[in-house]
Amino acid sequence: MTSTPHTASPHDWLAELVARHGPGLRAYLSRFAQSSADVEDWVQEALLKVCAAGLDREIDNPRAYLFSVARNVALGRLEHRRVRFSARFDLELAARTRSEAPPVHEAAQTDRDVRQLRAAIERLPARCREVFVLCKIHGFSQKETSQILGISTSTIEKHLSRGLKQCRAMLLGEAAQDAATPAPAGRLLRRVSR
Questions:
Q1: At what angle do helices 142-149 and 62-98 cross, to 10 degrees?
Q2: pLDDT, tens digit, 9 for 90 and up, residues 89-147
Q3: Helix and strand element counts for the chain (H, E)
Q4: 101-107: long-range contacts (C-beta < 8 A, 24 or more apart)?
Q5: Residue 131 to residue 153: CA distance in whole angstroms
Q6: Of 24, 29, 93, 148, most Cβ neighbours within 10 A?
Q7: φ and ψ of 119, to 5 deg
């Protein structure tokens, strides 16, 4: 099907697109969704975007374009949920910890730990760093990270293992160089590897 609304009425073109690819699209999106309502919302949004794009230009491969748009819609919605949840969690955590503020020397040590970890992460190879940040910093599961980056979950596991080992080695190396401070790397890496 290479026709677009330019060669058929928009209604007929969209109806044919849904009839031909709707079931496969729903099955594809169900891999990302928590409910069938999510799938239906994502399908509707993707169809609207594809239809709008098809009015402006010829779409060579409507199926590929539809699945690509739908995947981006789903991932965008999932990321939006994750950010909302994270922000709510951060606010609750901040409210709880205000009354339990650590002594100044502990807060300074934590800031130093975070700077060291950030520097260690920045030294990781690019793909390894992407996987590490998505899984360990942003909280995506290995399966979600696999889908976002388009690589296998076994590759995700290998990158995570490599990233943890390299960060641990870098942090322990820095801790050994700074004899005045007890090695915080173990405590820091235990937090990150959870």
A1: 140
A2: 555 555 555 555 556 556 666 778 788 888 888 899 999 998 988 888 888 889 888 88
A3: 8, 0
A4: none
A5: 11
A6: 29
A7: -65, -40
